[in-house]
């Protein structure tokens, strides 16, 4: 486990039979870190297989589920569950999925083979000339190595530019500059409202009116949900008295907690993750529908992702624009990214 960040080794358990042996959890973020930083190929292989395996007792359950899915599809008039699953998506059919993936593979194959040879050469240099294959558990390690050697890209250096506190300030900035909203921390109603001491409650307001509430649960801890996600706790909907039920959401991530002598630093991928999930949260909080089953992210998945991907894509450009040019009076010429998004959001939201 040499080369592993302290944030990962700190969540490992030492086996009782040896002080030098660690029991490593197979959570996704732990696996990704092991695959990226551990040089021992056997450790990477074992980690990858363990994290991507399931208990044998689950296999017959999955077989039954697959059969029931097929039965459900046939009852609803579809030849397969794949036809049912794609019927209300933008892709529309299994054939379109196959054609799309085949076209993408054909377009990328030449480039992929070239990069595969680069990875194989790097692996041979590190593990010996007799190596003939690059496996899935090799990719993160050797991709990181080549990026560092060829382009001088080191994710640990990049992370120094993204303290979590600055990224959260960026979320506040986006709310204000692009949406005309304010995101402010508010106290919990009582002790039972908060499921952990790390959780923070925020209110999303506009001109003094509260539009909804958001919980931030951002730090890694044992037995916590180990992915990043936006969860809808309560949907918005029109009530019988014509008032509107305020939506409540939770934004859950697994970032490292700040140490006494250093802040919590995010990789570029983690920065994109928090803005992506924040896009989902804003979708839920700003949505105004008559019925809760149509509220926020309860849309077709292909359309639900737009708000998240759009926020993820635009957030860094907007922050960069404000950082470089400061605040500018509107309208200005030529229009800035911030101005264009500001006008778009004002015309398309509350």
TrEMBL record:
Which GO BP terms apply? peptide metabolic process; proteolysis
Q: What family does this chain come from, according to its entry?
A: Belongs to the peptidase M3 family.
In Swiss-Prot or TrEMBL terms, this protein is called Peptidase M3A/M3B catalytic domain-containing protein
* Cofactor(s), names only, from the UniProt record: Zn(2+)
**Cross-referenced PANTHER family:** MITOCHONDRIAL INTERMEDIATE PEPTIDASE (PTHR11804:SF79), PROTEASE M3 THIMET OLIGOPEPTIDASE-RELATED (PTHR11804)
Q: What is the lineage of its organism?
A: Eukaryota, Sar, Stramenopiles, Oomycota, Peronosporomycetes
Name a Pfam family for this protein. Peptidase_M3
Q: Which GO terms describe its cellular component?
A: mitochondrion
* Domain named Peptidase M3A/M3B catalytic: residues: 36-299
Q: What are the transmembrane regions? A: none
| The keyword Cell inner membrane is annotated on this UniProt entry | no
**Coiled-coil ranges (or none):** none
Which keywords appear in this protein's UniProt record, sorted alphabetically?
Hydrolase, Metal-binding, Metalloprotease, Protease, Zinc
């Amino acid at each position: 486990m040499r080369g592993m960040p302290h944030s990962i080794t700190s969540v490992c358990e030492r086996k009782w039979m040896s002080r030098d042996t660690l029991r490593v959890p197979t959570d996704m973020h732990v696996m990704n870190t092991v695959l990226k930083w551990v040089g021992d190929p056997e450790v990477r292989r074992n980690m990858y297989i363990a994290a991507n395996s399931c208990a044998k007792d689950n296999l017959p359950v999955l077989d039954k589920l697959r059969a029931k899915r097929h039965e459900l599809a046939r009852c609803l008039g579809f030849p397969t569950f794949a036809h049912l699953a794609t019927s209300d998506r933008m892709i529309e059919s299994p054939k379109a999925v196959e054609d799309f993936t085949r076209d993408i593979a054909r377009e990328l194959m030449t480039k992929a083979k070239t990069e595969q040879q680069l990875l194989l050469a790097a692996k041979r240099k590190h593990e010996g000339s007799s190596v003939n294959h690059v496996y899935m558990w090799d990719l993160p390690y050797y991709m990181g190595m080549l990026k560092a050697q060829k382009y001088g890209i080191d994710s640990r250096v990049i992370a120094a530019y993204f303290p979590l506190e600055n990224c959260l300030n960026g979320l506040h900035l986006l709310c204000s500059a692009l949406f005309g909203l304010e995101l402010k921390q508010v106290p919990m109603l009582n002790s039972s409202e908060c499921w952990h001491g790390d959780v923070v409650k925020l209110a999303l307001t506009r001109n003094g009116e509260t539009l909804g509430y958001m919980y931030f649960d951002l730090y890694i801890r044992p037995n916590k949900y180990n992915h990043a996600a936006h969860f809808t706790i309560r949907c918005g909907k029109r009530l019988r008295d014509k008032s509107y039920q305020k939506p409540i959401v939770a934004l859950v991530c697994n970032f490292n907690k700040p140490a006494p002598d250093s802040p919590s630093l995010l990789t570029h991928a983690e920065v994109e993750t928090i803005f992506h999930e924040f896009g989902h949260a804003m979708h839920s909080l700003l949505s105004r529908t008559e019925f809760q089953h149509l509220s926020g992210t309860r849309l077709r998945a292909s359309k639900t992702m737009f708000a998240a991907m759009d926020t993820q894509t635009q957030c860094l450009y907007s922050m960069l624009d404000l950082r470089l040019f400061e605040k500018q009076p509107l309208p200005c010429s030529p229009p800035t990214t911030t101005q264009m998004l500001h006008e778009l959001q004002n015309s398309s939201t509350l």
